[in-house]
Every structure is written in structure tokens, then in C-alpha cells.
Predict the structure.
Amino acid sequence: AQSVSQHNHHVILSEAASLELGCNYSYGGTVNLFWYVQYPGQHLQLLLKYFSGDPLVKGIKGFEAEFIKSKFSFNLRKPSVQWSDTAEYFCAGAGGSQGNLIFGKGTKLSVKP
Amino acid sequence: NAGVTQTPKFQVLKTGQSMTLQCAQDMNHEYMSWYRQDPGMGLRLIHYSVGAGITDQGEVPNGYNVSRSTTEDFPLRLLSAAPSQTSVYFCASSPLRVRVNEQFFGPGTRLTVL
């Protein structure tokens, strides 16, 4: 069955620390991968997406993710987090005949000033 | 463009009541979908549509009904509300029919069923 899993439920970092959030997917065939962010009280916004080509994808606000096919992973990274990065982050995959998005359960990031 | 709009923002229902959550988009997107978000569960797909007149079930369709009479609108109906349907509901749309591309999300409707 298709699935997306996120390893961390809640991550707490200090400002300027580096961030890596794990995401693994289970899909057969072609898969499109996404990272969304949800700031407190707001709707989901796209951070970045991967369809094909360069496995290192750069998104908005200094975020990047690397698609590693052999590990079925699509981890999100940021070299130096800010307090304003406090949010919940969702990894999602789309594949199959309809291409519906399947979301991971999310990782809450709290950044201490 | 307003993007994806949802009404109402908040709603409280009693068990057994019915209601319709409205969703509209002005981007001429063919694909539209409804998700529910529950703590620790991420977002789960309720129903989706790949065009006017075409709808299908997602992961958690029980207790919900949808229709798609126009490209712009995709209402979600709760037939007989239950406390288990207390959740935040998000509508989303996407421009591609063949392959789901980036989905654009509405602001959400927070529903409480007493």
C-alpha cells in the first residue's frame, strides 16, 4: 500500500540550529513528493516539490530536500532555523492512477528564540 | 484571484444535524479535494473530483457526501453529524487532471460536533 511516514512528531530547536526532518515513502512506480508547511492557525502552503531530475530540490525560505531513491527518503533540511519557522511540516506523496496526495502525520517544529 | 475559499470558518453542530461545507476556487482547476485534519493523524482524503460531474471516494468517505456540478464549486455534505467528525476540514484544488501537481489549500473550516 502507498504510504508516507514521518519519523519525528515534535522537534525542538534553538535559533540558528540546523534542521533535518525525516520522510519515507512507500510507492510502486513514479512518485511525486512534496513538503508543506502549516503555520499556527493557517492553511497549508507548499515549501517544495520533486517530480524528476535533480534530486536536490530547493524551496522557499531557505528550505531544501533531497530525494534518495535507494532509501525511499525525501528529508527536509534547513541550515539555520529561525523562530518564524515554528510550524507543522507535512511530507506528502502522489502516485498511482489518480495521483491523490497521501500525507504523513506531520512534524511539529518549535524554535526557541 | 481569491484562490480557494471555504465557508464557514467555524461551525458547531449537534449530533444528528446535517450541514454543507462550501468550497470554491477561481483558478479553473480541474482537480478538487476535501481533507480532514486531526491531531497526530496528518491530513486524510475524504473525497475528490477530477472534473465537473466526476467524484470519487478517498480514504475516509463514510458520513460525507460530495457533488461537483461546476468546475468552481465542490461542497462537502455531512449527512448526520457525529462527534467523530469533529475536525478541521480543508479543501484543495490542483491544475492538472492527469497527474496531481501542487495542491492549493483553502483556509479551513473548524467543525465541532457536540
